[in-house]
């Protein structure tokens, strides 16, 4: 793999995350009628915006907290708090996104939980809630023994990446489902690839690119905290802008 410096990559990834949020917001504002919180179709529009912002962008940011070079030295506790806070913010946004879609369905007599997208999305949020509670109990509460933390840590890391992949799949399937439902009359049919379809398909690709880059960053050995199990690591982090060799 290319030996890339972390911080330029991090800035690029942050910009890409902002673009994802901007795209989903513009899609809902420009083609889907904007936003409201009254049970209308405009309330539904909060669902994709909150899910992309929370379960993809904020969740991806939370996953990369320990890759920041300043996190490589000193106490880990502040970084644990930041990691947990970002994940909690992502979860709150996801819950609000679920409230928006369930209320819209209930107010319009639309059945809940019948599509693959809905099954996948709800399973992702439920798994995420279990992951957050387990991580909080194991890594932030003082009574968790060291052996339990060591035992649970690889499980936590595995499910962290799994949840991000499930979030990407949920978002992409949701975008496609919304386009099939919305673009089905006259000259706006999805198969004719109108401007909305091109824009939303591009959004799906951006989400996938963001998620793949986060997973790639998590997999790079040279970007991992050198002494991950020590509460006070004194190792010097790799240069912020230049060469970041393996340790």
How is the topology of this model organized?
Elements: H1 6-30, H2 41-44, H3 46-63, E1 74-75, H4 77-108, H5 116-140, H6 146-182, H7 195-219, E2 232-233
Helix pairs in contact: 1-3, 1-7, 3-4, 3-6, 3-7, 4-5, 5-6, 6-7
Keywords: Electron transport, Endosome, Glycoprotein, Heme, Iron, Lysosome, Membrane, Metal-binding, Oxidoreductase, Translocase, Transmembrane, Transmembrane helix, Transport
Region (Disordered): 223-247
Pfam families: Cytochrom_B561
Low-confidence stretches: 228-247
CATH class: Mainly Alpha
The ordered H/E elements are: HHHEHHHHE
- Determine the structural class based on helices, strands and strand pairing: mainly alpha
| Morphology call | globular
- Fraction of residues in β-strands: under 5%
Rg over C-alpha atoms, rounded to the nearest angstrom: 20 Å
Overall pLDDT level: 90
Helical content, roughly? Answer: 55-70%
* Number of β-strand runs: 2
CATH architecture: Up-down Bundle
Largest sheet, spatial ordering of strands = 1-2
CATH topology-level name: Four Helix Bundle (Hemerythrin (Met), subunit A)
Cofactor: heme b
Main location: membrane
EC number: 7.2.1.3
Subcellular location: Late endosome membrane; Lysosome membrane
